[in-house]
Design a protein that fits this description.
The protein is α+β, with helices and mostly antiparallel strands. Helix content is about 35%, strand content about 30%. Strands 1-4-2-3 form a 4-stranded antiparallel β-sheet.
Length: about 80
């Protein structure tokens, strides 16, 4: 299991457009990936679950990846959020 804390820099936070792209990125990995914010967890491969977190700009989310490509998944999402 790999855990990364990542700051959401997008000026709209983790809203529809960014969430859609993030889910697509997460789906490219076989590992189970969850995102946690404010005590709530969401499957990173579920658009609705990610939107329900209501993550604002500047918030720090915890990304947890578990599986055979967990290192790649965690690193990939970390790089994704740097855009």
């Amino acid at each position: 299991m790999v855990l990364k804390e990542i700051r959401v820099l997008d000026d709209k936070g983790l809203r529809a457009a960014l969430a859609s792209l993030m889910v697509k990125k997460a789906m490219s990995y076989n590992s189970e990936i969850t995102i946690e914010y404010n005590g709530k967890k969401a499957n990173a491969k579920s658009f609705i679950n990610v939107l329900a977190l209501n993550v604002p700009q500047g918030a720090v989310v915890a990304v947890n990846a578990k599986g055979h490509d967990e290192l790649l998944a965690a690193k990939g999402l970390e790089e994704f959020f740097k855009i």
